[in-house]
């Protein structure tokens, strides 16, 4: 079409990468108003018996021109502009409503839990506690059926004032998970001052356990982290479980819950009941 003896290879991936940050940033507010975001849910599985325990809510942007964009493409931009606060509130509201629906339908052996990611910026939102309580009350969801995931990096940087809202929510029964644990170089003794109930071990720690025999150093490291977490009364969830070998090793090491492609990929809410 361009004339001459030319050809071009269309690569949707690199096309997507080429959409400018400026363009995306500019369209975020309208996308939120226009309901272009949707949530996929990835099952959380209890390791001792393989039962469905809950799901993590993962947001996506269905861009009218560029297709479905993953959160890594737009969450940092939303963080930067502050739009993460209303976007995060929408995710929370939608995920809590969904959890309620699953519970009413009796999905899972116990009441299902929903995990929602919280950006560092949301920790500074003065309405965080009030909004979260209002969302739970409006939906009629028990606080213990909600878990907020905050990255280890965000939490270790937080001072006592910034931790206060999380502590208030934890006191109400909301679970707090330390996300991507192991990537933030926590001072381990410092873990005691955080209002966390769960430690989510980053995928990078479980990669060495994909093959048999497992990397012996990785085994020892995970074993050590699990033992430390349990000493501090934290449960351990492992991310990025992709193989049955990995799942077996991690169960053996005493991990409490797991999430990963081995069990199920993130998917629409209708898929959750039959996902595991
Ligand atoms: P995350 O919280 O660490 O979420 C886990 C990511 O790992 C997800 O990527 C998930 O699709 C992917 N994953 C799950 N199982 C496997 C596996 O077995 N193997 C591999 N290789 N990957 C796996 P996703 O959905 O692209 O999300 C990326 C990040 O975006 C999340 O990382 C989270 O930090 C952020 N995010 C997602 N939704 C929200 C949200 O609503 N609010 C905020 N603030 N951040 C969000
Ligand atoms: Ca997460
Ligand atoms: Ca994570
Ligand atoms: Ca991760």
TrEMBL record:
<feature type="domain" description="EAL">
    <location>
        <begin position="21"/>
        <end position="276"/>
    </location>
</feature>
<protein>
    <submittedName>
        <fullName>Cyclic Di-GMP phosphodiesterase RmdA</fullName>
    </submittedName>
</protein>
